[in-house]
Amino acid sequence: MPGFCYLFLELPGFYYDSEKNRYFRLLPGHNNYNPLTKESIQYKAMECKRLRLLEEEEKQKKKTTRAGLNSSMLLQKRQLGLLSSTSYCRLVHELKVNCMQRRKIEIHSPDSSVAGTNNFKIIVADVACERIFTVNDVEHGGCKYGIINLSGLGKESLTVEMYDNLYFTNRKVNSVCWASLTHPDSHVLYPFKKSKISIQLPQVCIMLHRTTNFQEDISSSCVSWELQKRQAVPVCFQHHCSAALTQASQGPAGDRPGMLCSFKISTAWSCAWCLNPQADNCFSTGLTRRVLVTNVVTGHRQTFGTSSDVLAQQFATQTPMLYNGCRSGEIFSIDVRQRNRKGQSWKAIRLFHDSAVTSVRLLEAEHYLMAADMAGKIKLWDLRTAKCVKQYKGHHNEYAILPLHVNEEEGLLTAVGQDCYTRIWSLQDAHLLRTIPSPHPSSKDAIPSVVFSSRLGGSRGVPGLLMAVKQDLYHFSYN
Question: Mind telling me which Pfam families this protein's record contains (predicted)?
Answer without folding.
Answer: Beta-prop_DCAF4
